[in-house]
Design a protein that fits this description.
Layout: E1 18-24, H1 32-40, H2 42-54, E2 62-66, E3 85-92, H3 101-121, E4 127-129, E5 142-145, E6 151-155, H4 161-173
Parallel strand pairs: 1-3, 1-4
Antiparallel strand pairs: 2-3, 5-6
Helix pairs in contact: 3-4
Length: 174
């Protein structure tokens, strides 16, 4: 049984073996940490961009990338502090569209299936999840009555961290 520990440390300075990044299938990165990851891990971004462009990356999936070790240059000295794997968790179809519960659940199940062999056979023990794209203040959808008196969804509000996202992470990744 794994333990999930919430910390507020910078994710790019962590000593995690797996870095989990919530992304979208449109290959548009608006979060500052995600754009920094684009330059820090260009091999991961190239694979992610190619999968988005080809249409092979679907919402609710996980693209696990094994990083190539740098043998020369300024980053070679920092290889010990960089993750061995980067998991691109596809939780939405566009950065302006919030994640839906079914997409997040499907992506976490896919991540779990890909992480199990790494945990069992590769000795992976630490993973870091960038939670900022998943954070929100409310989990309810705004509804508006229409002319027939029925309610319709007008805008999708992002999922609530404490009531929706964290329980899903605990359920699928512990």
């Amino acid at each position: 049984m794994a333990t999930i520990e919430q910390t507020h440390t910078p994710i790019l300075n962590s000593n995690a073996q797996v870095l989990i990044l919530p992304v979208n299938s449109a290959c548009v990165l608006l979060d500052p940490v995600l754009t920094r990851c684009k330059t820090l891990y260009p091999d991961n971004y190239q694979r992610y961009h190619r999968a988005c462009r080809d249409g092979s990356l679907m919402v609710g999936s996980c693209l696990l990338h094994k990083r190539q070790r740098e043998l020369a240059g300024l980053s070679a000295a920092h290889n010990g502090n960089q993750p061995n794997y980067i998991a691109n968790l596809v939780i939405s179809d566009h950065p302006y569209h919030s994640a839906r519960t079914r997409w997040l659940t499907a992506a976490l199940i896919d991540l779990q299936q890909q992480l199990m062999p790494l945990i069992r056979y590769q000795g992976v023990r630490k993973a870091a999840l960038l939670a900022r794209p998943l954070l929100a203040s409310s989990s309810a959808n705004r509804t508006e009555p229409n002319r027939t008196g029925l309610t319709t969804e007008t805008t999708q509000i992002p999922l609530d961290w404490h009531s929706v996202v964290l329980p899903l992470i605990n359920q699928h990744l512990q």
